[in-house]
Design goal:
- This protein has about 160 residues and is mainly alpha-helical.
- The protein has five helices and no strands.
- It has a domain of about 100 residues.
- Helix 2 packs antiparallel against helix 4 and helix 2 packs parallel to helix 5.
- It is globular.
């Protein structure tokens, strides 16, 4: 079953790979498109970069700030919950859980990896998908952080 899933993944990746690089130069048509041509609206001159609108950049900055805050809250709540000996970590390995700096470093590394992934998606003209990366991570992490805050810890008044 596992090898079938891997083969399916490789097959789907091979289909999505373009035949040439996306930034490869395109042969110019014999005549430049005129303003009355409906296809002229979809032609972009070679060498010109599209600048993202300011609101898209603002949403990305807000998304990564929110993602960093959610990851920080998750690291804090995990450390706080593990002060009680009855609580156990569900996902992270013990080497990360035993050290508070390692918990925070893990969160920072995940946010940085998402930023690199967002830049990669943007470079491959997947801006809409790239905008959702930090918000999906916040939606995945925040419930765990809230759950960890609800667990009893050592300094709680009995």
């Amino acid at each position: 079953m596992r090898s079938a899933l891997i083969a399916l993944l490789l097959a789907s990746c091979a289909v999505s790979v373009p035949a040439e690089f996306p930034d490869a130069p395109i042969a110019a048509p014999a005549a430049a498109p005129s303003a009355s041509d409906p296809a002229a609206a979809f032609v972009r001159r070679a060498g010109t970069e599209q600048v993202p609108p300011r609101r898209v950049s603002a949403w990305l900055i807000a998304g990564f700030a929110l993602d960093g805050a959610a990851r920080g809250l998750d690291a804090y709540s995990t450390h706080r919950a593990l002060e009680d000996t009855n609580n156990h970590e569900m996902i992270l390995p013990g080497a990360i859980v035993r050290s508070q700096p390692a918990l925070y470093a893990s969160g920072v590394s995940i946010v940085l990896a998402e930023y690199v992934g967002c830049r990669l998606l943007t470079a491959h003209h997947r801006e809409r998908l790239a905008r959702w990366v930090p918000y999906v991570d916040v939606a995945a992490v925040l419930p765990f952080a809230v759950h960890n805050l609800s667990l009893p810890h050592r300094n709680a008044a009995n």
